């Protein structure tokens, strides 16, 4: 099975947000600013801080970010924060507010958050350098001046947290791309860095397909002779330019935090508002019609190709083929109550426990049985890309009509096409739209809801 190491670095940004918001509000509470409506002021500065940080990219500090870039972000953020602070006096007509106390408050906040930001930056650097935590194993494809510079960066700048494993030279006569890919697949390599000028187009495509299908991050060391038609992410490691082929929105800590927060709140609403009373009723109906457990628990493939236990209300008679054979039209295994709960998608409601536990999301690519994951990974190009994010109770492919039984090759191909589109173009509003459409489909009924 293809695996990918889980990283906890996604928690750094949300925690930093929380600490900084705590600092600006605690200092405001302790400072003798003399504002007339404390709740209004605290709400105002908190919302303003979040909006500014999103626009400026204040928390977008990566392992290779330079100190000068952090300083620029700090001064930019606090320049606008200063303007917003004093704008509060005019916007909300606060003649009694002390301008001097507001200036002192601004200075204290600036110093405190600057110290915290650099302490966090230094701590992470030392953590990677000395403890060897949050390390990413990398290989470099190609041998030229640029690749040599990059390898030196990996070796010398250990605080970046990259472990250089091996260099492959395509222009050597003994280079075998299949052996190279085999090495990457079997040595826990996280990221592949390809020199564009060292590879032929066919070899580039092979690396792209391999990375997509094996959950590896692929980045390019550019050459001026090549121009790519796709939208690429451009970054610098020290002074070496790097191109990333695919930028997944949900890999950003802020987007991930927003999605996870929504998942927790929405799942709690469904669990306590619906499941708490409908589950006992369904339990009685399911047991009256057929013997067996109330819940059907099945191993499925989740984020980073990790297995998890997926929950559903049992809609079939107990059978040995449940983990291998999808339900088809007029399937004799489906019970009478099962037919109803499947047609209305009520059988999926226990998956909100999966969402609460963190195995799934409300919206995302539908999780497949382990057997199907192994089958389609070898059959469908870029199939494994769908495992870059958590699977969902519903998804873009499902509201576009590709749910339920896979009858033809076009069914799975179109499903993967929509899954990849969702992964690469995620937005919170897209999630809301998919949820609304799912509810409408459940009410009106769907052709393949059997």
Automatic annotation (TrEMBL):
Q: Which residues form the Bacterial sugar transferase domain?
A: 259-442
Q: Which GO terms describe its molecular function?
A: undecaprenyl-phosphate glucose phosphotransferase activity
Q: Where are the transmembrane segments?
A: 12-33, 39-58, 70-91, 103-124, 264-286
Q: Name the Enzyme Commission number(s) assigned to this protein.
A: 2.7.8.31
Provide the topology term for how it sits in the membrane: Multi-pass membrane protein
Report the protein name in the record: Undecaprenyl-phosphate glucose phosphotransferase
The subcellular localization recorded is: Membrane
């Amino acid at each position: 099975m293809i695996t990918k190491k889980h990283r906890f670095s996604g928690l750094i940004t949300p925690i930093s947000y929380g600490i900084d918001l705590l600092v600006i509000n605690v200092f405001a509470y302790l400072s003798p600013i003399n504002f007339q409506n404390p709740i209004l002021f605290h709400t105002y500065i908190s919302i303003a801080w979040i909006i500014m940080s999103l626009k400026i990219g204040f928390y977008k500090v990566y392992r290779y970010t330079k100190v000068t870039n952090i300083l620029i972000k700090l001064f930019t953020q606090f320049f606008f924060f200063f303007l917003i602070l004093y704008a509060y006096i005019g916007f909300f007509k606060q003649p009694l507010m002390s301008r001097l106390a507001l200036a002192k408050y601004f200075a204290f906040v600036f110093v405190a958050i600057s110290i915290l930001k650099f302490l966090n930056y230094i701590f992470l650097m030392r953590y990677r350098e000395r403890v060897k935590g949050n390390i990413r194993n990398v290989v470099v494809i190609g041998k030229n001046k640029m690749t040599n510079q990059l390898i030196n960066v990996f070796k010398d700048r250990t605080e970046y947290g990259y472990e250089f494993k091996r260099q492959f030279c395509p222009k050597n006569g003994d280079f075998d791309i299949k052996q190279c890919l085999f090495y990457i697949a079997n040595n826990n390599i996280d990221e592949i860095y390809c020199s564009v000028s060292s590879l032929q187009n066919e070899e580039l495509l092979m690396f792209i397909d391999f990375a997509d299908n094996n959950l590896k991050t692929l980045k390019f060391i550019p050459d001026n002779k090549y121009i790519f038609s796709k939208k690429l992410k451009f970054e610098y490691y020290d002074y070496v330019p790097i191109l990333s082929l695919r930028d997944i929105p949900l890999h950003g800590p802020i987007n991930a935090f927003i999605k996870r927060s929504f998942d927790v709140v929405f799942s709690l609403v469904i669990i306590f508002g619906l499941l708490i009373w409908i589950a006992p009723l369904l339990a009685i109906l399911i047991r009256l019609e057929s013997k067996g457990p109330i819940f059907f628990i099945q191993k499925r493939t989740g984020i980073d190709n990790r297995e998890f236990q997926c929950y559903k209300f049992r809609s079939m008679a107990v059978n040995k083929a449940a983990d291998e054979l999808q339900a088809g039209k007029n399937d004799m295994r489906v019970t009478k109550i099962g037919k109803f709960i499947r047609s209305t998608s009520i059988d999926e409601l226990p998956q909100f426990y999966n969402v609460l536990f963190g195995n799934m999301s409300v919206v995302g690519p539908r999780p497949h049985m382990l057997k199907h994951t192994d089958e389609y990974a070898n059959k469908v190009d870029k199939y494994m890309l769908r495992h870059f994010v958590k699977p969902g109770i519903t998804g873009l492919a499902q509201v576009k009509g590709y749910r339920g039984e896979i009858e033809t090759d076009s069914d799975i191909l179109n499903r993967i096409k929509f899954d990849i589109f969702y992964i690469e173009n995620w937005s919170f509003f897209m999630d809301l739209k998919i949820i609304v459409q799912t509810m409408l489909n459940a009410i009106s009924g769907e052709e393949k809801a059997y």
